[in-house]
Amino acid sequence: MSPILDTVIEFFTEDDWKFSRLEGKPVITLPCSGRNGNWHCFAEAREEQEQFIFYSVCPVKVPESKRSAVAEYITRANYGMVIGNFELDFNDGEVRYKTSIDVEGDALSPALVKNMVYINLSTLDRYLPGIMGIIYAGLTPLQAISQVEG
Fold first, then answer.
1. Please, which residues bridge with residue 146 across strands?
2. 150 within a domain of the structure (yes/no)
3. What is the CATH number of the domain that holds 19?
4. Distance CA 54, CA 57 (A)
5. pLDDT tens column, 137-146
6. Which among 34, 130, 38, 140 has a CA at the least distance from the CA of 77?
7. Which one of 38, 41, 55, 131 has the lowest number of neighbouring Cβ atoms within 10 Å?
8. Are 50 and 102 in contact (CB under 8 A)?
9. C-beta neighbour count of 93 within 10 angstroms
10. Which residues contact 45 (CB under 8 A, 6 or more apart)?
11. Cα separation, 86 vs 9, whole angstroms
């Protein structure tokens, strides 16, 4: 029995999402999109730890020459963020936004999954233009964050 994964699948099914389950893993993958782009998402059920994690993965990897600038940008974005955070893999340039919840002693509900998924998607969509602006338009982290949050 996988109550966390079952609840996650229940939410995505009822909300009419197209998704795939990774064989042999408590993970589902799905395409996502917003006003500012399209990207890949995945949901992971960590049954033993009683945790659920949802990731939105930025559609482009940050070139090595831009990683420090993007790191500053996402650090500025993360400051004061209440739900979730951005992550940057300095090895390969992958940027992703993560929302997660620990449900130890309780149960995950479709409503909680919905809240986590939609805040995740809206946050990546909001900050994606800044990441792209740094990579492709030469914006500084301060210029990018000002455009997004200004």
1. none
2. no
3. 3.30.1460.10
4. 10
5. 999 999 999 9
6. 130
7. 38
8. yes
9. 17
10. 2, 4, 5, 8, 26, 27, 51, 52
11. 24
